[in-house]
């Protein structure tokens, strides 16, 4: 059953004004339940804008999005988002960040402890529960961010270049971890990146966008077997896909 | 600098050095044979005035009278500032309604209200506390509003997408994110409270440190004037330090803790 439908969506910032900027135009996409889709495109083509609208942070100027047939408007914990920027609350310890969502809904202390223990372990931060975010590296903070969204148990996971600021090694390890977690939970993931290799490695499907205004240029189905192994990045099939998509991006 | 022993470049030593130098220079000037002690009282006179007033009880009475006004005015002013500032900074409708008013009143120095307050409420305790409250409110509210407006959007968005209601975002994100600004507001308000207190007591008070200053001027008790100035400086300093300690504790999560 199709889960999320983006239906003829167009977005113009400052619509009607002198500096109106059409960022997205005529976007049609369907995200199957439990699928992993990446969206790639040069920076400024409207990827973050699209994701934020799917999160419900603001409404598109035209067209609509539906989750299970229900029009998306406003935020909802069923649609969790990992932001491009660092969004870990600096005034909460790692553990308190992780259990933030459940605490909002009145989880008991023991439930919170349980969730904290489970997800700090899952994102590899066991032993750092009582640290302040300022004491962590950028990569560790991103883990807190991801763990916090996971602990909130959304149905749909919107991820905006989550590994963009990390070094190559950390990035590859976090990609593998993410796939593992996804394999277990089978949430619908929509993953924005400008890194082609990352997109191919992770996804069932790669959506290529063109810029100014952002349109969908191509959709590539990635049939590489799962579970994906790091060595696959070097196979002919992988590189062929990469080469094909690379030619499509605006350079 | 590297060649000097560490304690010679430390904060404590250098601070003591500069204060000591000033005291020494003052002593040198006042011990000149042609010095007029009624204009520049020697340090022993100032210390003598301290003990005289201490044993007479006048100093402590004045100190309590002033501290009571400061603390009450400060508490009322800053409490109101936090409530109003949060509402103005967080809710657009309230902002549009109240912000022009605050902006219009803000440039007026609180001391300008002294005549009207005296006309309306007389030379009463209430008037003095009111004046200090106004002064504290005005400087503090601006900081609280700024704090609310500077809450990084990404924190608000993150909380919302995790299912936080508007009020939950306010409580769990906006307030903590704005704490650095709010605490700064409190510290500036404390300084404003002292300024206003002394001015108010100089003009219209039967008691307090400002009153003792005025009394000293009237009867040419320069040593008393000097002594009170030092007392005010010491009190303000201690209170600010206390605040800094609280700030450090509350802001333990922050990267810049000063
Ligand atoms: N709130 C906004 N108001 C006006 N323009 C915006 C706003 N947010 C983004 N933009 C513009 O929209 C375009 C797309 O931005 P964004 O979605 O962040 O791109 P991407 O994530 O693909 O790099 C950019 O040109 C950006 O300047
Ligand atoms: Mg972006």
UniProtKB/TrEMBL annotation, chain A:
<feature type="domain" description="ABC transporter">
    <location>
        <begin position="4"/>
        <end position="236"/>
    </location>
</feature>
<dbReference type="InterPro" id="IPR003593">
    <property type="entry name" value="AAA+_ATPase"/>
</dbReference>
<keyword id="KW-0067">ATP-binding</keyword>
<dbReference type="InterPro" id="IPR003439">
    <property type="entry name" value="ABC_transporter-like_ATP-bd"/>
</dbReference>
<protein>
    <submittedName>
        <fullName>ATP-binding protein</fullName>
    </submittedName>
</protein>
<dbReference type="InterPro" id="IPR050166">
    <property type="entry name" value="ABC_transporter_ATP-bind"/>
</dbReference>
<dbReference type="GO" id="GO:0005524">
    <property type="term" value="F:ATP binding"/>
</dbReference>
<dbReference type="InterPro" id="IPR017871">
    <property type="entry name" value="ABC_transporter-like_CS"/>
</dbReference>
<dbReference type="GO" id="GO:0016887">
    <property type="term" value="F:ATP hydrolysis activity"/>
</dbReference>
<comment type="similarity">
    <text>Belongs to the ABC transporter superfamily.</text>
</comment>
<dbReference type="Pfam" id="PF00005">
    <property type="entry name" value="ABC_tran"/>
</dbReference>
<dbReference type="InterPro" id="IPR027417">
    <property type="entry name" value="P-loop_NTPase"/>
</dbReference>
<keyword id="KW-0547">Nucleotide-binding</keyword>
<keyword id="KW-0813">Transport</keyword>
UniProtKB/TrEMBL annotation, chain B:
<feature type="transmembrane region" description="Helical">
    <location>
        <begin position="104"/>
        <end position="123"/>
    </location>
</feature>
<comment type="similarity">
    <text>Belongs to the binding-protein-dependent transport system permease family.</text>
</comment>
<dbReference type="InterPro" id="IPR000515">
    <property type="entry name" value="MetI-like"/>
</dbReference>
<feature type="transmembrane region" description="Helical">
    <location>
        <begin position="71"/>
        <end position="92"/>
    </location>
</feature>
<dbReference type="GO" id="GO:0042918">
    <property type="term" value="P:alkanesulfonate transmembrane transport"/>
</dbReference>
<dbReference type="Pfam" id="PF00528">
    <property type="entry name" value="BPD_transp_1"/>
</dbReference>
<comment type="function">
    <text>Probably part of an ABC transporter complex. Probably responsible for the translocation of the substrate across the membrane.</text>
</comment>
<protein>
    <submittedName>
        <fullName>Taurine ABC transporter permease</fullName>
    </submittedName>
</protein>
<keyword id="KW-0812">Transmembrane</keyword>
<feature type="transmembrane region" description="Helical">
    <location>
        <begin position="130"/>
        <end position="148"/>
    </location>
</feature>
<keyword id="KW-0472">Membrane</keyword>
<feature type="domain" description="ABC transmembrane type-1">
    <location>
        <begin position="59"/>
        <end position="240"/>
    </location>
</feature>
<dbReference type="InterPro" id="IPR035906">
    <property type="entry name" value="MetI-like_sf"/>
</dbReference>
<feature type="transmembrane region" description="Helical">
    <location>
        <begin position="193"/>
        <end position="213"/>
    </location>
</feature>
<dbReference type="GO" id="GO:0005886">
    <property type="term" value="C:plasma membrane"/>
</dbReference>
<keyword id="KW-1003">Cell membrane</keyword>
<keyword id="KW-1133">Transmembrane helix</keyword>
<feature type="transmembrane region" description="Helical">
    <location>
        <begin position="219"/>
        <end position="239"/>
    </location>
</feature>
<keyword id="KW-0813">Transport</keyword>
